[in-house]
TrEMBL record:
<dbReference type="Pfam" id="PF00096">
    <property type="entry name" value="zf-C2H2"/>
</dbReference>
<dbReference type="GO" id="GO:0005634">
    <property type="term" value="C:nucleus"/>
</dbReference>
<protein>
    <recommendedName>
        <fullName>C2H2-type domain-containing protein</fullName>
    </recommendedName>
</protein>
<feature type="domain" description="C2H2-type">
    <location>
        <begin position="127"/>
        <end position="154"/>
    </location>
</feature>
<keyword id="KW-0804">Transcription</keyword>
<dbReference type="InterPro" id="IPR036236">
    <property type="entry name" value="Znf_C2H2_sf"/>
</dbReference>
<feature type="domain" description="C2H2-type">
    <location>
        <begin position="42"/>
        <end position="69"/>
    </location>
</feature>
<feature type="domain" description="C2H2-type">
    <location>
        <begin position="98"/>
        <end position="125"/>
    </location>
</feature>
<keyword id="KW-0238">DNA-binding</keyword>
<keyword id="KW-0479">Metal-binding</keyword>
<dbReference type="InterPro" id="IPR050331">
    <property type="entry name" value="Zinc_finger"/>
</dbReference>
<dbReference type="GO" id="GO:0008270">
    <property type="term" value="F:zinc ion binding"/>
</dbReference>
<dbReference type="GO" id="GO:0010468">
    <property type="term" value="P:regulation of gene expression"/>
</dbReference>
<keyword id="KW-0677">Repeat</keyword>
<comment type="function">
    <text>May be involved in transcriptional regulation.</text>
</comment>
<dbReference type="InterPro" id="IPR013087">
    <property type="entry name" value="Znf_C2H2_type"/>
</dbReference>
<feature type="domain" description="C2H2-type">
    <location>
        <begin position="70"/>
        <end position="97"/>
    </location>
</feature>
Amino acid sequence: MLNLVLYFLEKPFGCTRCGKFYKQKSNLNRHIRFECGKPPSFQCSYCGRKFHQQCNYKTHMRAFHGKKPFSCPNCRRSYKRKYDLSRHLRYECGNRPFVCTACGKSYKRKMHLVSHMRYECGKEPAFRCEFCSKLFHQKSNCKKHMRMHLTDQSQNYE
């Protein structure tokens, strides 16, 4: 009995025609308008599953049958979700939207542009490799470079 009370508290909006319950009144209204007592309007041509709403049909097609309707105009990669295509265009597909106004160098991520402007643009390199004297604008790049020298030396001793 307690479970039944909790169920009605969780889903208080009920359909008087079929008895289905919903958490939100808007979902009940959608159910009455498009679903209750009406045959499904959309059917999957692959598996035969039927849907009352086109958005559920499209989601099913992308999730279960590999449909990837969102294609990149540059490289023709396809994605199931519009968000994934947007991310691809912004960070992966040669698009570098963050441009330094001083030198014109461009970056895929804003944080890289900020780092460039803070440590590199118009500044002399301040960090020198102890092994080959190569200069670097950023300490982290210099350290990474010096580790390469150390791994090269350790391989020579083996």
